[in-house]
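Deliverable D4.2, example record:
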Amino acid sequence: MKAATEASSSQGNRRGRKSKKKELYFTKTNMVPKAKTMLRYVKMLIPQRHLSFSPLESALLILDTQKYFFDRSSHAFIPSAPAIVANISRLCQTYAAMKLPVIFTRHLNSARDAGLMATWWKKLIKKDDPLSGIIPDLYDENQVVIKKTRYDAFMDSPLDEMLRKRHVKQLVIGGVMANVCCESTARSAFQKGYEVFFLVDGTAAYNERFHLASLLNLGFAFAELALTESICRKMHG
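Output generated by the structure prediction step:
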């Protein structure tokens, strides 16, 4: 019995290590079929709500597309993140052309406002870190960028007030990490009364398991899961 227990524990530890491992599951070439496969898989397991997307009442919210997560030299690099940039850029251009709100977040911490972030992650993203800025492919000096200090972009930020002033009722959410800041913000948005459209192919996590877990949780109770192509198509009528 003891040997069986130790063997089971060893297998569990190996699975645990594997589940935390970074992997490249999105690439520029496999993005379309991969995202569709992930979406089909999730839809087989959860009930569908089918929210009606209303572009003129929506805003695009892009979370933490910072070099810290997109630069290969960073310890926090997300291997699949570069593959989602083209989709995010396409949505930004579509929203801009229709003069609809596009909001970026930039996660920054100091010793004063880090709270448990410092305990949990040890290393903080500080303002003077050269990797703390928005990646060049998405940076625009005229874009709206709000600072956030927690996973949830609504917490201790002007985001909710900005959206209310613009009469926004729906949010299209993309960025990183799918299972951390994107999911936390999507849950918070739902609780605040916003209808959420969560981008399957506009978000990324350290590995596919984390990403799928978020899609299952959000699709079950908090958000409509969407592909970039479907959002763009509906925006063009």
